[in-house]
Amino acid sequence: MKFLFHEALRSLFRRFSHNILTLIAVLLSAATFTVLLGITDSSAAQTARRFQALETPILSAILPADSWEESETWIERQATQFHHVQNAGTFSMMDTDSPLIIRSSQYHTTSSVSVAIAGKGGLKARGAQLITGHLCPDSSNELSCAVLGQQVAKQLGTQPGSYIDVKNVQMRVMGIIHDSATESSLAAALILSPRTARSLKLYPTERTVIARVTPHSAEIVGSRLAQALSPTQPENVTIKYPANPEKLRAQFASDSQTLITVTATIMAVVTAFSIVNTMQIAVSQRKSEIGLDLALGLSRKSIAGKFLIESTFLGLSGSLIGTLLGSLFVAIVTMLNQWPFLLPPFIALIPVFGLVLGALGGVIPAIMASRVNPVELLHST
Amino acid sequence: MEKKSLPQHPLVCLKDITKTFLPNTLALKKTNVTIYPGKSIAIIGPSGSGKSTLLSLLGLLDTPTSGEYFLDGKSTSSLSANALSRLRKNYIGYIFQSFNLINYLTVEENILHCLAINSITGKEAHMRAQEALQSVQLEEKADAFPEQLSGGQRQRVAIARAIATRPRLLLCDEPTGNLDTHTSDQILSLLLRMVSPQSAVLIVTHNPAIAQSCDERIAIIDGIVTLGQSAEGTSDTVITERDNNEVSLP
Ligand SMILES: Nc1ncnc2c1ncn2[C@@H]1O[C@H](COP(=O)(O)OP(=O)(O)O)[C@@H](O)[C@H]1O
Ligand SMILES: [Mg+2]
User: What span, in angstroms and rounded, lies between the C-alpha atoms of B40 and B194?
Assistant: First the structure.
């Protein structure tokens, strides 16, 4: 056995010029496959990372109509009891297809607005910023308090302290806000506290409570939020999660799965053919060597074994070098692009595939080698 | 096994050997050949007469269609492939017209490769390779590759390779077919020197002078052994002509 290994490896190295092309073919296949897997994973991770930067870790809980009975103070306390929750509170938008016209009592200017019903905590959770004035208190009995989006305030020409008419009710403008960095719908909105909205009968059927959570904790909080907001009927609460970057990456990976599988199959077939071809050439070029070995008394099994070892080693070494070079390439590309460097553990199996391909590709040539007739030695010239 | 005292038993004994190739080539007809150790035998005959076929049967590379082959007194018919390859290892050396050196191995590695198949390795193998190269005067070419050698040198390497395993039966099929006259003479006289008391050398040759300097000659025409002479007057006829062969004598 050791003798066969020695013989096989020696002829592989000594006949290097005959094997180099196949070695390169195997190498390129393995490298391409590695790069494909590595780049796919790394770029998916990069996309997920970008997405994560944009992402607002905000959970929504949609409560049934009877939840409007609950005070905003209670809602906020229930939602913020989890220490992963930074801010929480009601934030419900009225349907935008039924805009409301409001009027400045002072200048008689008007503005078509959408209506947001939001508690202080809800506005904070959304990331809305107060420009001037204050937010309406959640618990006050003062029912004529309103906050305006910056665009509405500009249209009306109002400042905090001035009055507006909403459905024939005069209300005092408490503050002016602009929406969070990633949103804009509040700019054209009239913001009312839940109590005020109730008294004006200006609220949607469902009450939406939003909660801003610390990164990666959406799942944990979500699983408990329904129970906290509706202790008697948590099943009536619908929780909406922000897009999960991890899931997103997995999604990207599985999207490219088909492409990778097809490419890998084609490369495997091409590589196998290349190995079969090289080994067949090797057998026909070395008929006299094989005949001599047979004449000298080497068994046919050993002859087949020698060629099988050669092809196996060709597959293994080519794919091993290819995987290493491919990994290096991925490392360089990710470094230049400042992507995270990710290689799926699966690539460790590429050399194993190479070995198996080499062994399989060597079977037919090895059988051919073992069938050489030593008598040909006498007739060859 | 070997007894110093005469008469020795024959190394090779072919009894009524016939070899046919499909579909209808009768390459050897009812051939009887006896070879004693210590002899050199020339095989002569026109091209296509069956010389190589005879050699391949003697070398156990092929099996006869009928008849019996005794090697060192033991019948070789009905032996398994493994048993045959063991016999080849233990008894037989080959030298071919086209040298059949492995071109990606050095001269010494070619010899060591052959020894390794015969399970001779390490110091013993190196010693034998050196010895064999000395006897063909190619010690200084041990590390050369076959391509760097002339035809005559290559055939000397092949001889060194064959004798390194110390075969009892050295079979040479037109060993000088690819060489010029002067080199041929050198190679053939070298081959004749390889005869030891325990071994025999068979040489297929077209060179009448060499045939003459061999101890015995076998002439084949159209698969029929027509001539067997005993140069030293050893009483036995080495070759027996079959009656039914006589019709085809020229
Ligand atoms: N493997 C084979 N198959 C068919 N015919 C063969 C084979 N080997 C030899 N022959 C035929 O047997 C005859 C003897 O051939 P061979 O022994 O090679 O002759 P020589 O060596 O004397 O030139 C020839 O007619 C040749 O064509
Ligand atoms: Mg011939």
Answer: 9
Q: How confident is the model at residue B7 (pLDDT cuts 50, 70, 90)?
A: low
Q: pLDDT for A56-105, tens place per residue?
A: 789 999 999 999 999 999 999 999 999 899 999 999 998 877 788 999 98
Q: How confident is the model at residue B5 (pLDDT cuts 50, 70, 90)?
A: low
Q: How far is the CA of B98 from the centre of ligand 1 (A)?
A: 17
Give the separation between CA B237 and CA B218, rounded to whole angstroms.
Answer: 11
Rounded to whole angstroms, how far apart are CA atoms A142 and A126? 24
| Terminal CA-CA length for chain A | 32
Question: What is the spatial distance between Cα A41 and Cα A52, in angstroms, rounded to a whole number?
Answer: 16
Orientation of helix A300-337 relative to helix A16-54, angle to 10°: 40
Q: Which atom of ligand 1 has the smallest separation from the CA of B51?
A: 22
- The answer to whether B245 and B30 have CB atoms below 8 angstroms apart is yes
**Distance of alpha carbon A365 from its chain centroid, rounded?**
46
Residue nearest to atom 16 of ligand 1 (CA): B50
Q: B58-111: per-residue pLDDT in tens? A: 999 999 999 999 999 999 998 998 899 899 999 999 998 888 999 999 999 999
| Contact (Cβ atoms closer than 8 angstroms) between residue A304 and residue A328 | no
Q: What is the pTM of this model?
A: 0.71
Structure tokens at A367: 């059988």
Cα separation of B140 and B131, whole Å? 12
Better-scored residue on pLDDT, A254 or A261 = A261
Q: Is the CB of B47 under 6 A from ligand 1?
A: yes
DSSP 8-state secondary structure symbol assigned to residue B3: -
Cβ-based neighbours of A334, under 8 Å, separated by 6 or more: A38, A39, A42, A340, A341, A342
- Looking at residue A352, its amino acid is V
Q: Whose CA is nearest to atom 9 of ligand 1?
A: B53
- State whether the Cα torsion B239-B242-B245-B246 is positive or negative: positive
Q: Which of B90, B21, B24 is nearest to B57 (CA)?
A: B21
Q: Which two tokens stand for residue B101?
A: 């050196």
**B31 close to ligand 1 (CB < 6 Angstrom):** no
CA dist B167 and A32 (Å) reads 54
**Subunit contact A299:B85, Cβ cutoff 8 A:** yes
Distance, CA of A212 to CA of A88 (rounded, Å):
6
